[in-house]
Amino acid sequence: MRVQEKAVRIGVVTHERDLHAHAVKAELERRHPATVHIFESDRFGREPGLSWSPQGLVRPVFPAADGTAVDLGTADVIWFRRLGNPRTSANPEVTDPVDRELIDVDTATAALGMLLSEFRGRWVDHPGSFWDAQNKIVQLRAAHDLGVRIPRTLVSQSPERVREFCAAHPGAVVKAVHGVMRAPVATATVSEELLAGDASIRLCPAIYQEFVPGRRHVRAQVFGDRVLAALLESDDLDWRPNLDIPAQEHRLPGRVEDDLLTILRRLNLRMGIFDLKLTDEGEYVWLELNPQGQWLFVEGMTGLPLIEAFCDFLYGEAAG
Q1: Do 118 and 172 reside in the same domain of the chain?
Q2: For 14, which of 7, 81, 148, 210 could close a Cys bridge (C-beta 3.0–4.6 Å)?
Q3: Is the pTM of the predicted complex or chain greater than 0.90?
């Protein structure tokens, strides 16, 4: 504990088995005078459970994973990482998919209402900003408006427009606009089979982008004003399924760091995980932002001091 550091209380809104939440709690409480409560929003059915009343008929109870009944009004920062979990292992006795969805949605909605009503501290990040920034169309508009280099992009479910775009950009890739947790869809090269059928294209919009050549991928973690980036080398279109690849710390040019920080400010975020491509010509191409992306594995691959940097950032937000 450092001399004269302010004691703070931090809440982490997430779901069960979140390694990031537990690792940050342990490191924060080791490095700083911080009390960290983990709120597993898919397991609120355990004691003491969630309670709230607009007339104050009961004391508001927001249940932490260790059984503590937390008063949200005493928290300095909420790290809003995850809310709800359709794949939770909680309530195994409930087997009907509709019943399970009802439990998940209503629990998450009640928890969000309590957070918005009772918490008065700082958010990392506010739920509204978090969900806005998760939308890839919102991200792309923000990056483009700021003059950041992004791939040529079409969002469409029109067979005619999709075919025209892909003809103009051979090797184009397709990705989901959002996707679902139950069955994640990987980014893929647009196939002749897809282009041949109107029905599959018309089913729902997708994101079509020009292929950015090169095997150098950049994962940039931004915590507040600090940018820590890693360079990963892979011939795969999506490097994430195979992490047995060369990886090292990477210093971004100042203008690229400034671009990332500006995008976060535009989206009202204090943190974000960015994916970029570094072309053979040395150009950085912005691909996407995950407001609460995974980053612990990057520390394991590169030795970047990410958990230390994040804990210092989160403590600074709380001590404000």
Answers
A1: no
A2: 81
A3: yes
